[in-house]
UniProtKB/TrEMBL annotation:
Organism expressing this protein natively: Paenibacillus chartarius
Keywords: ATP-binding, Ion transport, Nickel, Nickel transport, Nucleotide-binding, Transport
Domain of life: Bacteria
Residue span(s) of domain ABC transporter: 4-253
Gene from which this protein is expressed: nikE
Gene3D superfamilies referenced in this protein's UniProt entry, alphabetically: P-loop containing nucleotide triphosphate hydrolases
Lineage: Bacteria, Bacillati, Bacillota, Bacilli, Bacillales
Protein name per its UniProtKB record: Nickel import ATP-binding protein NikE
NCBIfam families reported in the protein's UniProt record: nickel_nikE (TIGR02769)
MF terms (GO), sorted A to Z: ATP binding
Length: 268
């Protein structure tokens, strides 16, 4: 059984017309289906407005679809009772693109990482402090930073803190929604390396949502491409990337610049 199964998801947003009461539905997702296996990373790619982040919200239980099912560990996320949903929520975590808006600026690092642990675990004060220190070390940060506030960190450091919070409960699946897109190239490389190491150590599965084909290729086992709310191509083996004939895939591949400026060319 797949860890995650998304079956025929359709979703639309209502938008009102100016000076009229009539509302029209703007389709965002149309019959989207995909699956993620245990210990695998699926890279979900597409240009802005393709529906990637909306699909991520549907999978996280934040945006109820108009049609379709989201089965996580075999349980329908939108038809499970409160107890089951809480249990599933423990195993399903997220890291968003904007690392600063993802945390409460008035909370210390210790409080930020402690939040999920206090919701699901019964730990003494000493056990909680030790666990937070171990998590900070695991993501390459100093445990002594636990008393600092978000504004005292760089974007890359704060994203590491968000990752520490996401892995605190040892989840089965983490949705990474453009988690490295706002970081510089060097920091991106460090975060991707960290994510790969954590995936191996904890047996994690990822849904890696991005428009960056190089980042997706670096971390993913398989790839899926979205265009206008639909999955237009799925590759179980990412090595198939360069052989794709789909226009959306070729456009993303063609947008990648050479590492050295001398080898870059401008395309009409």
């Amino acid at each position: 059984m797949s860890l995650l199964q998304v079956i025929d998801i359709t979703h639309a947003y209502a938008s009102s017309r100016l000076f009229r009461r009539m509302q029209r539905q703007t389709a965002v997702l149309s019959g989207v289906s995909l699956s993620i296996e245990h210990g695998q990373c699926l890279g979900l790619l597409g240009t802005s407005g393709a529906g990637k982040s909306t699909l991520g919200k549907v999978i996280l239980g934040l945006e109820k679809p108009q049609k379709g099912q989201v089965l996580f560990q075999g349980i329908d996320l939108y038809h499970a009772d409160t107890t089951a949903r809480k249990r599933l929520r423990r195993d399903l975590q997220v890291v968003f693109q904007d690392c600063y808006s993802s945390v409460n600026p008035r909370m210390t690092v210790e409080q930020i990482i402690a939040e999920p642990l206090q919701n699901y675990e019964i730990l003494s004060t000493q056990e909680l402090k030790r666990t937070i220190g171990e998590l900070l070390e695991r993501v390459g940060l100093n445990p002594d930073h636990s008393r600092k506030y978000p504004h005292q960190f760089s974007g890359g450091q704060l994203q590491r803190i968000n990752i520490a919070r996401a892995i605190a409960l040892k989840p089965k699946l983490i949705v990474l929604d453009e988690a490295v897109s706002s970081l510089d190239m060097v920091t991106q490389a460090h975060i991707l390396s960290l994510l790969k190491e954590l995936k191996s150590s904890f047996g994690l599965s990822y849904l890696f949502i991005t428009h960056d084909i190089k980042a997706a290729y670096s971390i993913s086992d398989s790839l899926a491409f979205m265009e206008k709310g639909e999955i237009v191509e799925r590759m179980d083996d990412k090595s198939q990337l360069l052989s794709s004939n789909h226009a959306a895939v070729k456009s993303l591949v063609g947008s990648v610049l050479s590492e050295h400026p001398r080898n870059r060319t401008l395309k009409a």
